[in-house]
Amino acid sequence: MTLMVLLFLTLILVPVAASFHQVLGRDTGWVAAVSLTALGLMTLPWIGPIIDGRVYEESLPWIPTAVDVNIGLRLDGLGMVFLLLVLFIGALVLAYSARYFSPKKKTSDYYVWMLLFVFAMSGMVMADDLILLFVFWEFTTLCSFFLINRSGAKAPAPAQRTLLITMAGGLGLLTAVLMIIVNTGTTQLSAALQHEIWQENGTFTAVVAVLIAFAAFTKSAQFPFHLWLPDAMVAPAPVSAYLHAAAMVKAGIYLLLRFAPVFEGVMIWQVILIGGGLITALIGALFALQRHDIKEIMAYSTVSQLGFLVATIGIGTPVAIAAAIIHVVAHALFKSSLFMMVGIIEHESHTRDIRELNGLRKTMPVSFFITVIASLSMAGIPPLFGFVSKENLLKGFLSAEEEGIFGPGLTWTLTLLAVLAAVGTFAYCGRIVLGAFGSYRGVGKKDAGYDDGAHQPIAEDAAHEAAPAFYLPALLPAVAGAILGFIPFVFDGLITRATQSASTSDYEPYFYLWGGISTDLMLSAVIIVIGLIVVLSRAQMDNLIPRTILPWTGVAVAEKMRTGSIAFGRKVGDSTRTDMHGLHLTAPGIFLVGIFIAGIMAAPQIGDFTEGHTQMIDWVLISLMAIFLIGTVVSTSRTAAVVLVGGAGFMVAAWYFLLGAIDVGMTQLLVEILTVVVLVLVMRKLPKKFHPVKRSRTAVAAVVAIGFGVMAFVAAFALTGRSGRWTEGDGDRAPVGEAFLTHTYDEAGAINTVNSILVDFRALDTFGELTVLGVAGFAILAVLNSAFSTSDNVTPASKSWVGTPLDHAKDNTTAMRSVFNWMAPFIMLLSLILLMRGHYESGGGFIAALVLGGFFALRYLVAPSDSSVKLRFDYAMIIIGGIIISAAIGLAGFVEGSYLRPIVLFEGLPLPWGTESGFTLTTALIFDLGIYLAVIGAVLVALDRLGQAQRYPAELLRAHRRAMGQKTGEVSTVEPDYAVDPGDLPLEVEVGNAGRDDQSTGEGVDSR
Amino acid sequence: MSIAIAVGLLTAAAVYLFMQRGMVRIVLGFILASHAANLMFFAAGNPAYRAVPYIDGAPFEEQADPLPQAFVLTAIVIAFAITMYMVTLAITTTTDDDTENDEESPAKVLYGERRPRPVGPPADAGISDTGDTEDVAVKGVSTESGEIAVESGDDETGETK
After folding, report:
1. Complex ipTM
2. Residue A717 domain flag
3. Contact A652 B132 (CB under 8 A)
4. Fewer CB within 10 Å of terminal CB in chain B, N or C?
5. Mean pLDDT score of chain B, rounded to an integer?
């Protein structure tokens, strides 16, 4: 098995588990646990070679641009330690999940995100490409966000705060990664770390050190970013156990260790890490002693332990690095176990508050045993594994003096601070065990509501023991921690290699339980003695420790930033939000002025137009267009204005034909016809005349309009249509245009260059446009399905011919209908021909679809009533089908290397179009078919939904609702409450209980 | 030169229509503005070359630049779709496509700010009722609703009087 295969298998596990979930429900956790265990066992054979000095490396090209970005994987000792943690702790936690969630709870998305996290984390510790490292890093952040976000109504705000903080760190990492790539010229992590620039350019090294530390601090919840971790405790216990104790928060530690070799002896690195780490370790312990929620205590304890690790890495001696690595292992074992125990306690006693928890020692003996072992390990009591790792941490601190990094004074100061934090650890371990399982309530005089009777202890026999399948996953790591304490030397080989990966020395650590009397052992004894005293005098301690230290909390600050940024975004949006639509011309106007000024500046040097630029026929068209435009502007009748605009559109279409753009001209012509048809159909619902406006307003509008027109003219005149003096080459045409004319035949086998550009050369662009088209279609549907409606304005004038022959719609359309019936097959055939021949002659998907749209429009015009042409099929599906066909056929392009690349399917087909070698069928034609369908769908939406009279007079609607026994004026409005959550829409309207369940089939109402 | 003039004319007409009252005139202005933008593309492609840009269809020296044509072709269809969307907005109002009738503005009606109904029999009397919002508007009313007696003036919605 290779690294790639391993990574791929973790990814494949996601859909596999999701499909198992259909059958097994929450028991999917067992499947996932077994799979991860199997994967973990498969990695074990790598350990031997790695200890012998081998490094596994693999690489696949990913983005082979100027800098080769690869899917480069590399597994050394350091990566191996983290990989084992990710897989095995993951297996335990997933097994635990199978019993943690109630069978009724929806867990499918939970397993998907958990397993995606396994994939992301495995990828991150193996990544040997800086870009890949960043991608996986952010991926773990996202998984964490979704796992927090899915846990209940209160979760979104903490999830967003967590995301904001960790994403900020991600941006820091991205900056660092880009700086490294630019300065070393490689994206390969291992190569970049070997580069000599780290020694040569001190500024660069310092800046990157700060950025890396920033990223790691946010991820590993270090002061002042520690607040997200307790905040994230809204997530369920398995998420906390895995992401927020064992794995994700260790990503920051991994990053620090990975970059530690290049920052050895860098002053700012040491200051940030040791300072930030020790502060975090101390305040984490202090906060843990303040809290009553055992999960919150656990969270602060994790923060504190991570602070220890960061400070140790900051010391940077090989001894310290080795200690940090072994403590990562020890912490993952005892903390994942403890978090799982929190979940069990909450499950069995329905509370997490130590003031309420009571008597669990007797009712939950196994849980008590597990928690005690894990807590003793965390407190550093021999002979547990946590004792060994803590001993080593102290050794690491003390080694600063031996290695000559710090003087004895500073070394001892730091060590004593660490000892103080360790005493804190001991104290909160006691708080957890005694608080959760005994009658200890952890309240002091400084507690609000010190003895007001809230949080009464539960009855001694209220809780009961969990099922073995539930506590077994928590028992295993706790017991492992107990056993490993006696045999810590099993890690010697692997951690030796890991230490060598994370430092520049060849140091070979040796781990042991008992190594004779030494300084660190004495310190451990001191910690235990003082710790015991603190635990025994816990009542006095509770009276001493203040419950609030600062007048504000970090979470409140983060919340302010979150709501503030959203409110700021709203403010920015407000500047373009106006009811006076004329003001929307401001921004385009500013840009137009810019182009106008550019045109004026260019005017002295523009030179002459190419000969033949303006032709006689142009003036004819312009004159006609001007007449239509003037008519449009002065017209007070809606119908007249619509027809006049259509006339101007025909002039433009005619001009396109004269400019050699047959396809564009045809498109314009068809679109113009369809537009006029739809607009005329719509007009009958609106008053005949436009709204009158004041004379003064007309004057202002005219002045502004002329100003815009003049500026547009000057810009167009000065900046376009000249010889290509600013381009390379001697031709007057743009080189790109000439290139298309020269190469289209050779490269795409097409004759119609315009169509070929659309479906061969710029297919991705066209695909984007299709999507826009589809979105517009759906927007129309959505608006019509949900908006206000008005009555058709049946004007008295239209009633004047009631009773006359003009009113006989059916008879009046007979002649046209017979013509239509005769023409219909030909129009359809024409449409298909235009589609097929697009590559060779004028035509293509757009034009063919519009021709078919014309067919439907005609069908409309000849129909005696709206309802008789009501479409019986779902045009929304046509849009979707078209987009899917286009997107799917693009995949075929990968056969020859890239998305949407046209692939030749058949050559030399005997069709009437084509080159001398016959008609060539490529996937481009199928792509064109997708265009065809999407455009037809959009046209049908417009015709069918806008053309029909299907809206209701408000009176009718109200009468209907009254008849249904509903109150008519029942609109409750919700004022936007920025304080609660400005991320929500400001406007929420709830309409009684009407509507939603009342969707009868009567979509079309012929109100005539 | 000629295209530049056309662009100027179309822009002026479009801007004039934008500044009028009523959604339909804005839509018409949008159509004209899209013409102006499209012609601009052709101007950029140098309109001195006017032969059809098909391979071997016309002398190479006279063929037009096909790239602006391809751009404009899709732009026309997209502009059509957007036009239809704007038309939809024009007819999904309380009364007509007026953009400036303060009293009837959807925001006002939705927020429940009601004003005394104007005296006299305006054509849209009673429409400012706040009841007909959202989902209920289009769906759910069958053709039979036409038979329900409409008693104008019998308004129980408690408008401020």
Report:
1. 0.70
2. yes
3. no
4. C
5. 70
**Alpha-carbon gap, residue A448 to A434, rounded angstroms:** 21
Question: Is residue A353 domain-shared with residue A502, that is, in the same domain?
Answer: yes
- Residue with the two structure tokens 């042409």: A869
Lowest mean pLDDT among A185-194, A533-542, A789-798, A824-833: A789-798
**Secondary structure, 3-state, A533-550:** HHHHCHHHHHHHCCCCCC
Mind listing the pLDDT tens digit for each residue in A788-835? 444 444 555 555 666 666 667 777 778 888 888 888 899 999 999 999
B76–A contact, CB cutoff 8 A: yes
Domain boundaries, chain B: 2-91
A474-526 residue pLDDT tens: 999 999 999 998 998 888 899 999 999 888 888 888 888 877 788 888 888 89
- Do A894 and A919 belong together in one domain? yes
Domain interval for residue A639: 586-732
A134 within domain boundaries = no
Interchain CB contact of A917 with B (< 8 Å) = no
pLDDT tens readout for residues A279-323: 999 999 988 888 888 899 999 999 999 999 999 999 989 999 999
**A824/A854 same-domain check:** yes
Which CATH number covers residue A649? 1.20.120
Please indicate if any CB of chain B lies within 8 Å of the CB of A567: no
Measured between beta carbons, the chain B residues lying within 8 angstroms of A648 are: 10, 13, 32, 35
Q: Is A969 part of the contact surface with chain B (CB cutoff 8 Å)?
A: yes
Compute the distance between CA of residue A35 and CA of residue A119 in angstroms, rounded to an integer: 13
The identity of residue A396, as a single letter, is G
User: Same domain, yes or no, for A935 and A1002?
Assistant: no
CA–CA separation, A136 vs A82, rounded Å? 14
Rounded (5°) CA angle A638-A640-A646: 105
> Does residue A321 sit in the same domain as residue A452?
yes
Window 3-32 of B, Cβ < 8 Å to A: 3-22, 24-28, 31-32
Q: Least CB-CB distance to A788: which of B28, B126, B132?
A: B132
Nearest to A850 by CA among A924, A776, A937: A937
What's the structural domain count of chain A?
Answer: 4
